[in-house]
Write a structure and sequence with these properties.
Strand content: 15-25%
Largest sheet: 8 strands, parallel
Order of helices and strands: EEEEEEHHHHEHEHEHEHEHEHHEHHHEHE
Radius of gyration: 21 Å
Number of strands: 15
């Protein structure tokens, strides 16, 4: 087997190792067979056959988008108009819109059509340096259609140089063929999740814990089944109200609790104790014109890791720009530049349970983003500007 050795030098590094950005002013990254073998000062870099002069550009880990609903059909532009006219997200959902409207379009699409319509969204993420992306199901809401979504997500990784991790979100909304939420949760637990897990389509399990979604008791049933199948869990929690979802997730050792606008102090403390990552989604906050911000100061005080994601979805965050999400997080949530960049690298990888990406360290995957910027703050400061010079996936 031919061994591939490369060295990117004359660069400034954001290694994200430890705390902060881990800046190395005159740095180099060495790669062998897709893995980092060195990341640090140029003076200590190994000799390699292929040397790539970065001409003073910045290198960060490849970006990680740890919360998306990227695979779906149709759009919800009409609902956007209704919200502009004053309708609330809850009102639209209860009148048959929202998730159920996307479910209808997704059920009507073939797997090939889902792949085709999702590729442009994935390409937009890749164009801004994303090398790892999480994709949820949850718009099929039947065994056949959830399978179709997850299979489409898996196929995207075959068509593009990107790592895709799939999350089963069967407990996303109540499909019209079920009149009772408990009965549907039983179907999710007894039929859908075991079957999809047995087919190797599920990397993690999620649920929507909300008044218009599922109760904490119903979510707990799903999580118990996930645990018996050896699957990690995560949760849409405290987006529209405080149902104690984050504490529930933490009690099940969840990788992350996401949204968190209505998170209380007890929930923050529970997340800190369990190591559950807080995934903040400023695109959804902005798009739905929320006013209650997540408790960032409390998360910091308790030492809860903070990740960011686009939440790419048709109804509440049709966003495919991690760079804009960083700016939104800084502007709307008052996150620092370091928190925003770490939120799409080190902490996003942690939110997925991925220990092989998110930082520039020996042994990690050689997933790099090379930027035409003068300082890291430019990644967060600029709006509608993409300074990506090159994106490296597994050393290529």
């Amino acid at each position: 087997m031919t061994r591939m050795n490369r060295l990117w030098h004359n660069a400034r590094l954001m290694t994200l190792e430890g705390r902060g950005l881990g800046i190395v002013e005159d740095g180099a990254v060495a790669c062998e067979d897709g893995a980092i073998t060195y990341a640090g000062p140029s003076a200590g870099a190994p000799k390699t056959a292929e040397r790539i002069d970065c001409q003073g550009r910045w290198i960060s880990p490849g970006l990680v988008d740890c919360h998306t609903h990227l695979v779906y059909a149709g759009n919800r532009a009409r609902e956007f108009e209704l919200r502009l006219a004053g309708a609330s997200y809850e009102e639209i959902a209860r009148s048959g819109g929202g998730i159920v409207s996307t479910m209808k379009a997704t059920r009507a699409a073939t797997e090939d059509e889902l792949v085709a319509t999702s590729l442009p969204r994935l390409d937009a993420l890749i164009a801004e340096g994303v090398t790892t992306v999480e994709i949820k199901s949850g718009y099929g809401l039947s065994l056949t259609d959830e399978r179709k979504q997850l299979r489409a997500a898996r196929r995207l990784a075959d068509l593009r140089a990107v790592a895709v991790t799939t999350t089963f979100l069967g407990a996303h909304a109540l499909p019209p063929e079920f009149a009772d939420r408990d009965a549907y949760v039983t179907h999710v637990c007894d039929t859908m999740l075991p079957a999809l897990a047995a087919e190797g389509l599920v990397d993690a399990v999620d649920a929507f814990c909300e008044g218009i979604g599922f109760s904490p008791a119903q979510v707990a049933r799903v999580f118990e089944v996930a645990r018996t199948l050896g699957l990690p869990v995560k949760l849409h929690a405290e987006q529209l109200s405080d149902l104690g979802g984050a504490a529930l997730a933490a009690g099940h050792g969840a990788l992350s609790a996401d949204h968190l606008e209505y998170l209380d102090e007890a929930g923050v403390a529970a997340m800190a104790a369990s190591g559950t990552v807080a995934v903040l989604l400023p695109g959804a906050f902005y798009f739905t014109r929320e006013e209650k911000r997540p408790p960032v100061e409390a998360l910091r005080a308790h030492g809860v890791p903070i990740a960011l994601a686009t939440d790419c979805n048709p109804g509440t965050s049709p966003l495919t720009s991690p760079l804009l999400a960083m700016n939104m997080a800084a502007t709307l949530f008052r996150l620092t530049v370091e928190e925003c960049i770490a939120g799409f690298t080190r902490e996003a990888a942690r939110a997925l349970g991925h220990s092989d990406v998110g930082t520039l360290e020996p042994g990690k995957a050689c997933d790099l983003a090379i930027w035409d910027i003068g300082q890291p703050a430019e990644l967060v400061y600029r709006m509608g500007f993409n300074p990506l010079h090159a994106r490296i996936r597994r050393g290529q």
